[in-house]
């Protein structure tokens, strides 16, 4: 036991909300530029990584011409789109058409300002946290930026004056409303355990899980919230796909039915590049939020955490980057594996499955946290928990019975329709040719036509 304590890493200087706002202006500018450059490089090589991994999954080579392993392909594509002629289709709202990609990409960059990359370090002789800024409601700030970003999609579709683009914008607004509610609810369990909405303090709370007294025994609790709150993380992982319009929830783009959705009228120019950049930066934002809230943030995983210097200095930047690459790889894996679902299935899944599951899970987490409060009335808590469980079961069986009756009624209606079509083939809509066409062999066309109609 003593040996384990010797190997345990000492706690670094952990930043909190009060640690911010004291940096010199030049340190703040350096950190802001560093985040901006990091996101630009992440977008370029995120595109390369996605194309390369999907091609290998499909037994293709992928980008392999520009540079070693095709590493310069994304740079070549960016230069190409930057220098292509910027066209404005007829009848578009020119101002909104031009500003929509900017509205889409700027909030995504702003959301990264509250993501912690590491502890307090020495930067050019100044002690500063590896985070641009923090707020007492930092997680809500991320959700607010995600909500503003959808205006870019809606305006891009509306200003294009194209039916496909307008439908894509409408789909995106409805999708974000439904899935952002589920996303926000999936954070509630983390807030209950951490007791704060500050991103830096949530990471600090995952330094040690503490112990839980059960029947006189001290049970060590895991430090990362993904272990204790696995339903919250799974729901958040699904909402990440819906929030960023990624497969299988890329209905606002829907190439099969909407050509390209809200970006149909944007040619492969700088505006199109901004739209793609906004999409990928949003993917990295939701990935970074999942790391911060559920995977310990910049903290090293076990057994690397046993090394004394794992969570000190600039090493946490490496652990954060590795986690970010792994989560982004999950996005790519889903895109290569799953087909696009129907829009009615998308909306029904968000409102009828994810939100009720989230509410039930929040009730359970709140009950567990209440049990750990000293002096809590355990009898009242048990009674409330039992009533909630019984109520959920009653609702489930009630709805299950109603749905079963609806299925049986629908099956009976379909059976009657099929029987009617077998007796009268033309009863289902348009008239059909008679089944005894060989009988008209040798007759002229007028007789055949009269027989059909």
From TrEMBL:
Reaction catalysed by this enzyme: a quinone + NADH + 5 H(+)(in) = a quinol + NAD(+) + 4 H(+)(out)
HAMAP family documented for this protein: NDH1_NuoH
EC number: 7.1.1.-
One of the record's GO cellular component terms: plasma membrane
Function: NDH-1 shuttles electrons from NADH, via FMN and iron-sulfur (Fe-S) centers, to quinones in the respiratory chain. The immediate electron acceptor for the enzyme in this species is believed to be ubiquinone. Couples the redox reaction to proton translocation (for every two electrons transferred, four hydrogen ions are translocated across the cytoplasmic membrane), and thus conserves the redox energy in a proton gradient. This subunit may bind ubiquinone.
Gene: nuoH
Keywords carried by this UniProt record: Cell membrane, Membrane, NAD, Oxidoreductase, Quinone, Translocase, Transmembrane, Transmembrane helix, Ubiquinone
Membrane topology qualifier: Multi-pass membrane protein
One GO process term, biological-process aspect: aerobic respiration
Protein name: NADH-quinone oxidoreductase subunit H
Record family assignment: Belongs to the complex I subunit 1 family.
Membrane-spanning intervals of the chain: 25-48, 95-115, 135-158, 179-204, 224-242, 280-300, 312-334, 346-368, 380-397
MF annotations from Gene Ontology: NADH dehydrogenase activity; oxidoreductase activity, acting on NAD(P)H, quinone or similar compound as acceptor; quinone binding
Subunit structure: NDH-1 is composed of 14 different subunits. Subunits NuoA, H, J, K, L, M, N constitute the membrane sector of the complex.
